[in-house]
């Protein structure tokens, strides 16, 4: 079954802790993306990667880090430097790495900082 | 960067009614997508439509790139159509590497 999976679905963390969100795709897509969504808002781009071992900052990269060691995987780490990390995080992928092409989204991870 | 405005912000309709959602954007685009976000947060692809008209069942979309707007039509609404509809665009560029910019969405509520 082809698609994008994200885990966990819900995540709780204490202030000051780093946490890593998982994103895996088996669509053989080159490009992958991380977005953040706050209540009542649209999505904002955190980081994106057009090819393995390469990634670029999006609009709100501060306090986040990523890696792209495998084509299928693009994990996002929310660090303690992120001032307001409670949000809904969505991962996406697209086939092409040049003109981005149609993006497809995973089911999301809801992160709550206690 | 490119600006994306969606209207109306909220829409409440009776089951069976038709609706039109609008997306205006401030620059030329290479990519325009319409998504439906269901109550569980999942973003479902509706249309990839940088220009022209497409139809899929009760839904259709038209993008007039030269006038910088797109319309999403929903006919014979059902309660399962409820949720937030997002328009997202990628600014036109000869170099690629442009990001997808989202509007703030239209919240549609269908009443039985």
Verbal overview:
The complex is a heterodimer of chains A (114) and B (112). Chain A is mostly beta strands and 114 residues long. Helices cover 0% and strands 50% of the residues of chain A. The termini of chain A are far apart. The mean pLDDT of chain A is 92. Chain B contains no helices and eleven strands. Classes of the chains: A mainly beta (114), B mainly beta (112). Chains A and B meet through strand 5 and strand 10 of A and strand 4, strand 5 and strand 9 of B.
Helix and strand arrangement:
The complex is a heterodimer of chains A (114) and B (112).
Chain A: E1 4-7, E2 10-13, E3 19-25, E4 31-37, E5 43-51, E6 54-57, E7 64-66, E8 76-78, E9 87-94, E10 103-105, E11 109-113
Parallel strand pairs in A: 2-11
Antiparallel strand pairs in A: 1-3, 3-8, 4-5, 4-9, 5-6, 7-8, 9-10, 9-11
Chain B: E1 4-7, E2 10-14, E3 19-25, E4 29-37, E5 43-48, E6 52-56, E7 59-64, E8 69-74, E9 83-91, E10 100-102, E11 106-111
Parallel strand pairs in B: 2-11
Antiparallel strand pairs in B: 1-3, 3-8, 4-5, 4-9, 6-7, 7-8, 9-10, 9-11
Outline of this structure?
The complex is a heterodimer of chains A (114) and B (112). With 114 residues, chain A is mainly beta.
What key phrases describe this protein's structure?
heterodimer; A: 114 residues; mainly beta; 7-stranded mixed sheet; 4-stranded antiparallel sheet; 50% strand; B: 112 residues; 6-stranded mixed sheet; 5-stranded antiparallel sheet; 11 strands; globular
Gross morphology of chain A: globular
How many strands of chain A? 11
What proportion strand of chain B?
Answer: over 45%
What profile does the largest beta sheet of chain B have? 6 strands, mixed
What is the CA–CA distance across the termini of chain B?
40 Å
Oligomerization state: heterodimer
Order of helices and strands of chain B: EEEEEEEEEEE
């Amino acid at each position: 079954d082809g698609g994008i999976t994200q885990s966990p679905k819900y995540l709780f963390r204490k202030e000051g802790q780093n946490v890593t969100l998982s994103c895996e795709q088996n669509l053989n897509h080159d490009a992958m993306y991380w977005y953040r969504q706050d209540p009542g808002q649209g999505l904002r781009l955190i980081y994106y990667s057009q090819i393995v071992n390469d990634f670029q900052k999006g609009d709100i990269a501060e306090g986040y880090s990523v890696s792209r060691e495998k084509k299928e995987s693009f994990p996002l780490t929310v660090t303690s430097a992120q001032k307001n990390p409670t949000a809904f995080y969505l991962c996406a992928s697209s086939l092409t790495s040049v003109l981005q092409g149609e993006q497809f989204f995973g089911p999301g991870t809801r992160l709550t900082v206690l | 960067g490119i600006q994306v405005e969606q209207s109306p912000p909220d829409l409440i309709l009776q089951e069976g009614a038709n609706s039109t959602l609008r997306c205006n954007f401030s620059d030329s685009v290479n990519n325009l997508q319409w998504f439906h976000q269901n109550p569980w947060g999942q973003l479902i692809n509706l249309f990839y439509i940088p220009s022209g008209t497409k139809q899929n069942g009760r839904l259709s979309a038209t993008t007039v790139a030269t006038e910088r707007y797109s319309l999403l039509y929903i006919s014979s609404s059902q309660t399962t159509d409820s949720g937030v509809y997002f328009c997202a665009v990628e600014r036109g560029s000869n170099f690629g590497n442009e990001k997808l910019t989202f509007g703030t969405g239209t919240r549609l509520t269908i009443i039985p």
